[in-house]
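Chapter review: from sequence to fold.
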Amino acid sequence: MLRNFVGRIQKGLSLFVARRPDAFSYFSEDRTATAAQDDVREGYFSVLAVKGEETKRFIVGLDYLHDPAFLGLLDKAQEEYGFRQKGALALPCRPQELQKILDGPKA
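The token string follows.
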């Protein structure tokens, strides 16, 4: 089931991937999802870390789709939101939690 979910994400990412090589950092919520998609370069995708009033947008490399901690967040997102999320992929965690995963060693 998780492999199916990851496969669907990878397939859908091709619609949102741009070719700008200068942007792979994270951005705060003041950027809109529609205008911000052109800052995602090939091999990356954007996610929102959402917990209560805290929301932050991150640009994440596709290699994190193999990271157990990141996959755990995807499982939580599936449990909380299902497979029918509209717009950006939202992860139910505090931005600091996702930042720790992205800053830590990759599996």
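Two observations follow directly from the output. DSSP finds four helices and four strands in the chain. Strands lie at 27-28, 44-51, 54-61, 89-91.
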